[in-house]
Amino acid sequence: MRLENTKFDLITDTCCDIPYELAQKLKLDYFKFEFILDGKSYEDDLWQTISAEEFYQKMSEGASASTSAYPIGKFVEYFTQQAKEGVPTVYLSIPEGLSSSINSARRAIEMVKENYPDAELYVEPALPSAASVLLLIEAAKMRDRGLSAKELVEWVLEVRNFVHGYFTLESLDRLAKGGRIPLAASQLSDKLDIKANLSFDLAGALTLFGVSRGRKKALKAISEKFKTLSRGDATMPVIMASSGTEKDIEYLINLIHKDKRFADLPILLTSVGPVIGSHVGPGMVGIAFFGEDRRLSTSISEKIAKHIKS
């Protein structure tokens, strides 16, 4: 899907939760990851086959939803074709803090380069869900302005440190079933109506920045994070994502627009896709925006680990 006058192909995967129309506008290709709903397998095609409303309604009614790893063979097939055609390619993937798929893509590129050692193929982690949308919008702009594939990779590695994402869930039950948090924590949260205030670290793994008693307090905590850390630049996009919770999105938008600094701030809405949605369930509400360098708030232990690694 490369544009004329651009130097490389830019591809992502459907964990980025980008709206279908926006992906078409930005000329972004994507790997269609698989999800299973009540025993039936689907390709995630950005809500073209099944709607977000239908998917989350079925989950609310008790339908089981799960995901499966993207086959390494499909990665090999795609990157082999790119190498044969001599097309430089940058794949911005779901981070390894959330999925092993990026490691499969890395291995696939290694395999392809055994036969095409000069192939210019890159895979780098993007960010979770709506935060990835922000990164992709700006990456597409940089591609169209003439950056090379290698230059874009360097740009991504720096810029993703300035993308913030905060969200809350109606229940931690799905995360517990997927082994991402202890079951006891999920049960206690539901019993006491405690809502987890979540974010992601520099590796893309989930982190906890606080807890709130009740849904509205959790949404207020998210809005305060935005007001504190956002640059408030109307030229930079702000994304809100939800999994079947339109009323809560409206509430969060109102909390932000009530602040005079952000009264006219445009906000792009997107639905959490079925792959991420299978793990968080109905009731996720989140926001992603550009703000201060997240490396400045790195914990002491992370700084020590980084120093040792270097």
Explain this structure to me?
Helix 3 (72-85) packs across helix 4 (101-115) and helix 5 (129-144) runs antiparallel to helix 6. The chain has two domains: 9-160, Rossmann fold (3-Layer(aba) Sandwich); 162-297, Hypothetical Protein Tm841, Chain: A,domain 3. The longest helix has 16 residues, at 129-144. The strands form three sheets. Strands 10-9-8-13-11-12 form a six-stranded mixed sheet, with helices on both faces. The protein has helices spanning 20-25, 52-60, 72-85, 101-115, 129-144, 149-159, 173-177, 183-192, 215-229, 246-257, 274-280, 300-309; strands at 9-13, 29-31, 34-37, 40-43, 65-67, 89-93, 121-125, 163-168, 194-200, 206-213, 239-242, 268-271, 285-290. Helix 4 (101-115) links the parallel strand 6 and strand 7 (121-125). By secondary structure, the protein is of the alpha/beta class. It has twelve helices and 13 strands.
Evaluate the radius of gyration.
19 Å
What order do the helices and strands follow? Answer: EHEEEHEHEHEHHEHHEEHEHEHEH
Global morphology: globular
CATH architecture of the largest domain: 3-Layer(aba) Sandwich
**What's the overall average pLDDT, rounded?**
88
Q: What is the level 1 CATH name of the largest domain?
A: Alpha Beta
Number of helices: 12
Strand order of the largest sheet: 10-9-8-13-11-12
The total strand number stands at 13
Percent strand? 15-25%
The parts where pLDDT drops under 50 for at least 5 residues are: 181-188
Percentage of residues in helical conformation: 40-55%
- Distance linking N and C termini: 38 Å
Kindly identify the CATH topology of the largest domain. Rossmann fold
Category from helices, strands and their pairing = alpha/beta
Largest sheet: 6 strands, mixed
Number of domains: 2
